[in-house]
Write a structure and sequence with these properties.
- This protein is α+β, with helices and mostly antiparallel strands and 370 residues long.
- The chain is 33% helix and 19% strand.
- A six-stranded mixed β-sheet has the order 3-4-2-1-11-10, with helices on one face.
- Helix 1 runs antiparallel to helix 3, helix 3 runs antiparallel to helix 4 and helix 7 runs parallel beside helix 8.
- The longest helix is centred in the N-terminal third of the chain and has 21 residues.
- It is globular.
- The protein starts with a helix and ends in a 23-residue tail after the last helix.
Length: 370
Amino acid sequence: MDLKKGLQLFGCLAVLLSLLPLIAADYWWIRMFDFPHLQLTALTLLAILAFFWKFELREPRDYAFIAILAGCLTFQVSRIYPFTPLADMEILAAQTKSAPGIRMVTANVLQSNKTDSLLAAQIKAYNPDLLLLTEANARWRDALAPVTGKRFSYKEEIPLENTYGMLLYSKFPLIEPEVRFMVDDSIPSIHTRIKLPSGDTLQLHCIHPTPPMPQHNPMSTDRDAELMRTARLTRQSDYPAIVLGDFNDVAWSESTGLFQRVGRLLDPRKGRGFFNTYHAQNWILRWPLDHIFAHREFRLRDLEVMPDIGSDHFPVYIHLDYFPEGAGDQSPEPASEEDLQTASDIIGQEIRQDSGNGSDDGGGKPDGDG
């Protein structure tokens, strides 16, 4: 095979792998290509540059090849453009230091990771008001107890040995915390209200759905169902909501986009950067899996991917201000009737538009979900 044909095959492969996730199927070998979108974009650009560097456009198939690659690159860039500083910010920057705020850290600790001292040091350094640990077992709970016991007055602990344990610690009161197993009786999630020192009440949802991988789950059905169930909860919430955790999904996927629209949620990364959290030990294959989404009543003061803790994930630190007076200045992308029907199909229950004029303006509680 000559170099030109090899390059054309290379380019066609990049196109195929980029378009494969557009197939509406839940098989892991399709959904897995949602993840390396940054890498596929770089490969497509490399193929275009290599072709122009090595060859001249002489034959019709050369023009067709470049046109296809250019179209694919345009599509790829359109998916990741919102996560660049060139795009508009979805959650605006904090404007006043007088607004009540909440500092949060979420970290997938990697159950087999034994270097708990690294995370303990970062908890002390970042001093969050709320700490969520996923993939945490009893060993992690006990190892961090000297730090969490001194710093946090409230907690909800579900240590498990199946890599889906979850530990939640808070300096602020947790109001009626509830552990739910929304899709699988071995995969918990935590749902609670939080009372800020200002007296304001927030709603918090902590999740860690299963990934679409052959060793975990050959389909993305369970993950997507948990995302849609959580979106339904935030859509119905009487309080401004925050959702955080390891989603096992990337920020630019169709499922995460649907989750945002149905849940009326904003992404603090949009307009700022990718904030890749996985894989911490592989700088080439790296993408954002750990997420924090919020309703429009919040403004962003700080967002940071924290240093390595020995896990395959980097922790994430965020400082959100509660600023309901500015909610009208930022709006989530509204969910269409098709979005709501798709979400309903995924979870098997109806999600409706608000009663009255059917608006989807991000406020109020819908009339029901069937």
